[in-house]
Amino acid sequence: MRQHVTTGLWILIFCTPFVLGIFHSKNILLLNLGLVRWQHSELAEGDPELAISALSRTQAGKGIRTWALGNAYWQSKEYQAAQKIWDPVADGQHMIQLANYFFQRQDEQQAVDWLMRAEVSDFCLADVWFTRGQYAASSKNWTQALKNYEEALKFPITSCDHHGHSDVLYHMALLWQHSIEHPDLEAAIELYRKSITRDDFANKHDKANALYKLGQILYVRGAENDAEVIAMLEQSLALRPKHSWANLVLGRAVYRHTEDFHKAEEFLSRGLAMNNTNWRFHFYLAELYDAEGLIDQATEHYQQTLLLAPENLQAQQRLERLQP
Predict the structure, then answer these.
(1) Which end of the chain, N or C, is surrounded by fewer C-beta atoms within 10 Å?
(2) Exposed, middle or buried by CB within 10 Å (0-12, 13-18, 19+), for 252?
(3) Helix 244-258 with 279-291: angle, nearest 10 deg
(4) Exposure on the CB side of residue 254, measured as CA atoms within 13 A
(5) 254-264: pLDDT as tens digits
(6) φ, ψ at 290 (rounded to 5°)
(7) What does the CA dihedral 315, 317, 321, 322 come to, rounded to 10 degrees?
């Protein structure tokens, strides 16, 4: 009897780590499976419901599990479920996402409360003030938006922050270029340059947009800027090839700078293929064909311009000139 007990104890001693290892491995596998599926769901290539199922069945790594499970619900647009999971354990980014959730629901008081909680907790302060800037800008309170963005620049970017200082500078530049009652293009140019030089954008699309915006302003400023414009727009398209407006301005800049018709046509046609319901893409392609004496192609695209913008006097006059 004693021998059987002893044998049983040895089996228990040797097998317990193995059994626990299997249990632990299963939890880690489920966690990793959930995380992979959640990450894919962000790219619209996966199934967030399967991610939720996998993450819900594991107890491994509770902190990262809570974060991932809440995000999986968020990606599934089940915002209340995400709120319920994050509320008791919310860190800075969860607080900011909850603030955005309430702001989207037009519950501004709840949104501001969550931002204040993040600020008081000393969480993600650069993101807190960046988000405050976004709220002010959405309310067309441009002065307050700029002040909030300036506050965001005072705080170092940490692992908690989803946006870099480049994002803050870029949004400040947008305000100076487009939104403020008296636009200041010099201020916008300086801010775009700073954002590109700092280069800590949240994603490559934002950097591509900053390069495009700066290139657009410089193109309008005159032909002396064309070499720099071309370089910037090529960088923008390397990051975001399907940027229709970058293709449009690059085509125009290439033709003005080098008179390379085929290269200019390639960029303008590519832009048009992505944005064929905007009259400008037809008009500037027509302008290129017109300059090269290609009457039929120019006529076709001036006509398309007028179908989309019947009051376009410039297109009307050019079409009349081309028609016998």
Answers:
(1) C
(2) buried
(3) 20
(4) 22
(5) 999 999 999 99
(6) -60, -45
(7) 20
Place of tokens 């607080």: 95
Q: 55 vs 41, which has greater pLDDT?
A: 55
Q: Helices (DSSP H) in the chain: which residue ranges?
A: 2-42, 48-56, 62-75, 79-86, 92-104, 108-120, 125-138, 142-152, 165-174, 185-198, 204-221, 226-239, 244-258, 261-274, 279-291, 295-308, 313-322
CA torsion 290-292-293-297 (nearest 10°) is -60
* Residue closest to 257 by CA, chosen among 230, 281, 235: 230
Distances (CA, A) of 29 to 23, 32, 34, 71: 10, 5, 8, 18
Residue 219, pLDDT above cutoff 70: yes
CA angle 220, 321, 285 (to 5 degrees): 40
Task: Please write the tens of the pLDDT for every residue from 27-37.
Answer: 433 334 444 44
d(CA 248, CA 265): 10
**3 state SS of 242:** coil
- Residue 78's CB: how many other CB atoms inside 10 A? 17
Residue 181 has phi, psi (to 5 degrees) of: -55, -40
Using CA atoms of 15, 16, 19, 24 in order, give the dihedral in degrees to the nearest 10. -140
pTM of the model: 0.70
Average pLDDT in the 201-215 region? Answer: 95
Q: What is the CA radius of gyration of the chain?
A: 28
- Buried-state track 296-320, b at ≥16 Cβ within 10 A, e below 16: eebbebbebbbebbeebeebeebbe
Are 296 and 323 contacting, i.e. CB atoms less than 8 angstroms apart? no
